[in-house]
Amino acid sequence: MPGALRNLEREITACRACPRLVRYLSGIREKFPSYWCKPVPGFGDPKARLVLLGLAPGRYGSNRTGRMFTGDASGRFLYPALYKAGLANQPNGEDARDGLKLKGAFITAIVRCAPPQNKPKPDELRRCAPYFARELALLKNVRVILALGKIAHDACLKHYGARLSAHPFKHGAVHLFPGRPALVDIYHPSRQNTQTGLLTMGMFLEVLRKAQRLCGE
Prior knowledge:
Layout: H1 3-14, H2 19-31, E1 43-44, E2 50-54, H3 62-65, H4 73-84, E3 105-109, H5 122-138, E4 144-148, H6 150-160, E5 174-175, E6 182-186, H7 191-195, H8 201-216
């Protein structure tokens, strides 16, 4: 990983800007001393053309393992999809030391700490947003941002300075902005969405491959 991204990763991991989230993670750490319980940095290929933007680490997933979408139901859906699309070297991601590597893709989130009930507050979204902006500035080859859910979609629009009303979230929609990476919408691969059938593997792969085609144009 290039030095600038590595330095940003260290800065993110050391962040303590949101008192509510710091307290929440401290409480989890008391119960589960082996958990990561720190902000989670982005993960993937520094030369990525595709960025997958999620909401926040899951309490028992990324917050436990220290790597995005690793060790929970969302990751068990996401990484097989990335493997099928040729973006990962293996279909499973259960531990940060399991050898998983991404090719052409980078995964990050708009909030880096696991929030209570998976619901970050507006001030926490604002404080964390600059980390996404700085990551994006360091990922020089990005052509497409795949927003995993509406909150990630809205955060990307705010970063672009675009009106939310002009670009509503819709699964499979493509939003184009001159001089910036395209924004593609997809339902978040949460347990709720996948178990209810709102999002199937076929649906996810269809939109993922659409994003890949845009990356190549």
